[in-house]
Specification:
With 180 residues, the chain is an all-alpha fold. The chain has nine helices and no strands.
Length: 180
């Protein structure tokens, strides 16, 4: 498999720690968190101080693309319980397959080609999942969705892990996003 053109938080403990600390701080700064939750498109993200508080320290350590990082920040801001299960596991628990078919919302979410459409659908799905999901796994998924070559791999791995978890199989879903 060829290398994919994006970074993962999971592979960078300092960056993952920064993301977790940023989210913890965001929990106590409800106005900043609410501002990110109200974002309708990426142009609404750039002026938000909360986004800058994540972006600037990260830029000193690694180079995430601004659009991908903004999408990840918006998704992470939606989460109330940041150390929950991986995305595929939460999807299987909350939106289980019926008659061997993925729930319609899961099919819609994983069928999204456009990263902004994926983010919009993901935000609604996070509400159904009681806003509980591992934020590093979530951020890595959103980052990967912006790269067409990674999106295909991530989509397949998420769908397989979704069915595995629904069937009660233990799979390592937090490693689902391919490394760069």
């Amino acid at each position: 498999m060829s290398e994919l053109p994006f970074l993962r938080f999971r592979d960078q403990p300092e960056a993952a720690g920064l993301l977790r600390r940023w989210h913890d701080e965001l929990q106590s700064r409800r106005g900043a968190r609410a501002a990110l939750r109200r974002v309708r498109d990426l142009d609404d993200v750039w002026p938000e101080e909360a986004y800058s508080r994540l972006r600037l320290p990260l830029m000193k350590r690694c180079r995430f693309g601004d659009e991908a990082l903004a999408r990840a920040a918006v998704a992470v801001a939606e989460v109330d319980e940041p150390r929950g299960a991986a995305l595929a596991q939460r999807l299987a628990a909350v939106l289980p397959p019926k008659d061997g078919h993925a729930a319609p919302r899961v099919r819609l979410l994983l069928g999204a080609e456009d990263p902004d459409e994926f983010l919009r659908l993901l935000r609604a799905t996070l509400q159904q999942m009681e806003r509980r999901v591992d934020i590093v796994d979530l951020a890595d998924t959103v980052l990967a969705w912006g790269a067409a070559s990674a999106r295909t791999v991530v989509r397949r791995r998420l769908m397989l892990a979704y069915y595995d978890h629904a069937a009660g199989l233990e799979t390592e879903t937090k490693a689902d996003v391919p490394a760069a």
